[in-house]
Amino acid sequence: LTAEGKLLIKSDNPKGRLMEIIAKTQKVALDKGDVVYDLVTPEGVGTDPKYLCQVTLACLPGQPKFMGQEAPTKKGAEQSAAQKAIDGLAQQLSDLHIAYLSAEEEPKHKSMLNALLQRYLTHPVTKEDFEWSYDSTDAGFVATVNIPSLSRQFSGSLQQNKRLASHDAAGQAVAYLETLDLPAPLTKALLPLADAAGGASISSAKGDLYQAVTQVAGRPLDKGDIAYHEEACSSGYISTVTVTGYQDLTSQG
Asked: What does each C-alpha distance from 180 to 147, 177, 184 come to in angstroms?
């Protein structure tokens, strides 16, 4: 793409160029099944086979398909199909890119969902905490996010691409989580520790942790609210701290 949002049509590697164009215009990380190449049975025998390939863009509304020209190799047939897709979608993709460049705000629902679910779980979220699925139509995509820890799934409205669809579904999950009585994020109380971590001694860090947990718990701590356990290893010792004063949070040094 040029600075003006125009597509550079020709490329020495059309397959790679097609992936780059779609990823930039749709602003999504492509999965294996988003661009699918299907080879047609070769024509000819002996030393002169001919191959045809059709590429399906499952990540775009309507899942458009493009058939390439005959080529003497499978790789050449795939590259030809990719070039046909670039040629066929040039104006559509360029218009989408210009629209994205002019957008004033990016949706932040997925970031908000991560933050709220982390508070609900009281530990950092991982990819396994979300299950995303998409329904494709000629008009766009509808995303659904299943959150096993909540035993709920949330679907968004029809959007022009997977990225916007996922943010819309995440917005539905955010709206639900905001109705729950979530614990205060521990990370906010510990932010001063992160800022001073570079020069803090072990003794001062333990004292800062005690003060932070006291603030979050809202009460004086008992003897077992912060427990340390040391284990010997080949290079020294590893210490694990369990903060039972805040929902059994465990961290290892």
From this structure: 15, 5, 12
At residue 38, φ and ψ (nearest 5 deg) are -120, 120
Question: Virtual CA dihedral for 33, 127, 110, 100, nearest 10 degrees?
Answer: -30
pLDDT tens across 109-145, in order? 888 898 899 888 888 888 899 999 999 887 788 999 9
Tell me the C-alpha distance between 239 and 229, whole Å.
6
8-50 per-position pLDDT tens digit: 445 578 888 888 878 777 666 778 888 999 998 666 555 677 8
Q: How far is CA 253 from the centre of its chain?
A: 28
Compute and round to an integer the Cα radius of gyration of the chain.
26
Which of 178, 186, 240, 242 has the alpha carbon at shortest distance from 217?
186
Assign 3-class secondary structure to 164-182: HHHHHHHHHHHHHHCCCCC
- Enter the tokens of residue 159: 């959007």
Give the C-alpha separation, 112 to 90, whole Å: 34
pLDDT at 197: 44
Do the Cβ atoms of 30 and 22 come closer than 8 Å? yes
